[in-house]
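request received
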Amino acid sequence: MNRFAVLAPGFERLSYPLDRHDAADGSAFSERSERFCLSRAQSEEHAQMALVSAGGLSEHASEPVGYVCAGQGEIFVVCRSSGRKGKEIAHDERRAFSTAVVKRLAALHTEGLGCGGLSPEAVEFAGKQAKLLSPLRIFALAEGDSVYYEAVSTLRALVSSGVATEGEMPKLASAYLSHSPVCRHEVAQHLQKKGRKGTARDELVKSAMKIIPFF
Amino acid sequence: MKAQAIAKNAMQGMQEFFRLKAGKEDFGGYLPLFSRPASGVRPASVSAVAIGGRKFTRYRYE
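response:
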C-alpha cells in the first residue's frame, strides 16, 4: 500500500487510483482515458526537481504530474503519457519510430543534455515524435562527458530490440549526425583520437555492432 | 437458498459486464467505476504543500 502522493493542480483525481495501486517502476494506469506511467526516483528531492522543472523539459520527456511514495518508502514520479511504448509500435511504423528516437537523442545532445542512451522501452511515440517516458533520466552534460557512447548504445538498443534492422543502421546514424552539430564534432574527435580515417557514420555503425547490448 | 443463487448470478453478471467493458475500452485493467471512493471508504488526509514556489496537494493514505 502506498504511503502518500503529491499531485499537481488539476490532477487531484489521481489520488484515488494511486491509493488503490501499489506503485512499481514502469507500471501504468488509466484515468479518464488518459494514461499515466510511474518511474522510480532516487529520492523525494529528485522527484520534486522533476515536478518543478517540467516546463523546460516538456519537449523531450512526458509531463510529470506528481509523485507517490510506496509502502517501502521508494519514490515514483507519475507522468502523463500521451503516446505508445516501443513494444506497442506497429511493424510498419518501426522505421519512423527508430528515426524519431535518434532525432530525440540528437536534440538532447544539442541542448547539452544527456540521458545515458535511449532504449525503445524508455521512450514513447506520439505524432511522429519520440519522448522519454521519465524526465528523471535527463541530466546536464559536464565538460568531460561523451555523447558518442550514448549514440552507440542507442543504435545498438534499437537493433537488439528488433525495432530496427542492421541494414537500417547507417541511415539511423546519418539521421543522428545530421540533426546535431555537437554529435558531428564529438564523432570527428573520436575518429581523430583513434587515428581512423573512415566516415563518422561508418564509425558509429561499427562501434554499435561491436558492443554488447546492456539495455 | 434461492436468494443466494440470484445474488450469485447477479454478481457474476456484473463481473462479466465490467470485464467486457474493460476489454473494449482499454482502461488498462483499471475500472473507472471504482475510481471514486465508495461509501464507507476512509478518505486520505489532504494538505497543501509548496515546492519550488508552486502549490501541490499531498494525500496521506491510511
